[in-house]
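Let us work through a complete example step by step.
Step 1: write down the sequence.
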Amino acid sequence: MSLYIKAGAMLIALASTFVVQANEYVLKKVAKPTYQSVNLNLDPNLDTFTGSTKINIEVLKPTHVIEVNGVDYSIDEAVLVGETSCDLDSAMNDKGIVSLGCGSEIVPGKYQLNLTFTAPYNRNAVGLYKTIDGGLPYLFTQFEMSDARRAFPLFDEPEYKIPFQLTIRSPKSEKVYSNTPVVSETLNGNWITHEFAPTQVISSYLVALAVGQFEEIPVKGMSVPGRVITTKGKIELAKYAAQKMPVVLAALEDYFGSSYPFEKLDSVAVPEFPFGAMENAGLVTYREDILLLDENNASDVSKRRAISIIGHELAHQWYGNLVTMAWWNDLWLNEAFASWMAAKITYQTHPEFETHLSMSRNRAMPADARLSTKPIRKPIRTEADIMDGLGLAYSKGEAVLSMVENWIGEEAFKQGIRDYIKTYSYKNTQASDLWNTLAKASGKDVPSVLQSFIEQSSYPLIKVTQQGNKITLSQQSYVYAEAKAPEQKWVLPVVLKYGVNGQTFEKSVLLSKRTLVVELEAVADWIYPDANAMGYYRWTLSPENFEKLLANVQQLSDRERRAMISSADALLDGGFLSAGNLLKILEEFTIDPHPAIVSSAISYIDRQKLPFVDEKNQQQWSNFIAQSLLPIVERYGMVVKTDEDPQVSQLRSRVVDLLAFEAKQKNIIEVAANQTGRFLAGDNNVDPYLIGTYLTIAMYHGDAKLLNQMIKVFEQTKDPTKRTQILRALGYAPQGTLQQQVLNYSLTDAIKAPDLGYLYLGQSYQAERQSDFRSWAYEHYTEIANKLPPFALPRLLELYGGGCDLDNLATATQFFGQLTGEVPGYTRAIAKLEESVQTCSQLRLREKASVDSYLRQF
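Step 2: predict the structure and record it as tokens.
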């Protein structure tokens, strides 16, 4: 799918806690499934459906009750057939479990559960759900994490890998797809019964189907048949994905050393989807603005995202589908590996995207440093536990795997992965199975390294001191300046890069102690403590050595220089660098020769606005932005050039955004209005990198006429990218009547639940608009909550109380504190929100004066 703890006694204690707490959410181990057939009667024009299922099971010990999973559906009839045959009573509890009771004792043996049921189509994009697109109804599934139980009775836990066979009866006007090829179709009046081949053994969360009036094109050149499938009127936008999928799949087959493991590979563009994509075996689903794009008018950003997410989902076909975690506590590894693999394959197949400059650790580390953050491998009871920190699991896990691969070598890592897939195909595993396989392939202590990063939160801060040619490395927990963290220790590979008389050298060591003395071959003129920027750690140097490094920064690689920008920001958060000095360093990076590094520096400059800029220094801030960014415009121009580096095009968009919103450059605002008018009128001859930015600028300075025009185009367009760009722009409607109009519009059927995040993103721009948004959001909380998928509710707290303001935090914690009994995830979300806002507030108190001092020169 495409979003701690210490060893020894603490690990045992947490494991014991998990066993006790998990019982009420996990099926009792009295029976296990071996095969399941499902018959569904699906008409997208209705609001409910009916079905029946036959589950072959093996009863493991005498019992009167067999448990299956269930949410929302009602069982009409339940019969057990076997040595002990009986009609079963059913009772569904609030933990997603259905108890099927028999008056007689059920003795161990082989049985068949025969169940008929009725259920509603879900309307929140989970389970078997219905959505409307272009006036037509469609049915899709999203079963991960544990929502297959909303569609039909089953054993809905990842350890139960069995064949599933689906038979779907639907109106003849509808096309029907599932995980496997169709083996027969029978017409009966206005209905067709589609019988699909049994799947290979898979976990229930990978079962999938789609019903509706779809269009499709074949994907040619893959090792198995495949199609790209879209809702009506969008198939022309599927050509890019159809061209690229064989390239990505072939690269993955080569890496894994084995063929794609399923019978077909269909890809579905879904108009309402709660995630980026989902790796269902043989029927992968994608949010349509990821899969569908107009190649002639798409930016490299859109193309790169499509390739990366396709790579992520196809990597899952081996890692996740063929080999599956035993329980959700190892979901982090599924997603981390797929993200890591996607980055590798994208760089291999499309080096022009320069994905080596995209570092997942920079996304992970700010959250991972908080004391409220849990390890990415942790006990799981509920779906709220799964979703808690899931985004961190993707990013941190990917970064740690990259560090380990860099340490043991690419070939050893690849051999370990191949051995792992070969050994555990069609089975369930735990994280230690991979760790041990990598250790065997490399001859290195991989488990110690991975355990120290995966089973405890945060990461190390490496203090580097120099005395002649001897370098002392000391590790401690990285924490925000005002925080006090428990004592932790990691086993980590450290690679030092250093310069001697104009030449560069590297020294690799494994830091397993608190302190280690490393002897270099010569006295270093400068030291960079993270060669290739592969380490999942932060570092500090003495002020003198830090200045030497800055003076020699162009001797670092592009990736290392980009990582250094993030490292400097972390030094501010950790209390090792003042905010004023950080701004000075970032400003120097705005003249870097690589546009991606300039873009990164600008992004980190923009981040300083939240804690440090207010009405008193707003003008100085605007002047600073203008003085720092206008030379970039002079260097690269305002108009795209023929054969221009896409990184320059991306940089220009970032520069234009800040010059308009922060520096209030009138000429840019005028250009944005002009370009927006052309775009909305149907002129596609606009800069694909800039048009999204122009739309937001124009909307922020726009009027009712522009707003209504945007809404009209939004509702009519078949282009998912254009739709998403307008969604983002609508969120910047000016304060007052137009902002309220957009907010009310967000609750209509025109806006799908997964779209709310795009629409609300711009509401945080400027304190007055944010205040009005939050007042509206409290008033309409119930409507917002009812619209969202259940797993997404804890994310709401950031909208209501995020930032630096303690008063807003108090209001949010009081409001959501009353709802913790209704939404399990709110308790954790409140704790994380409190730490985030308090950290930002403390940073403001500590460093505001240094920023004010720095900005006075502008």
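Step 3: interpret the result. The radius of gyration is 28 Å.
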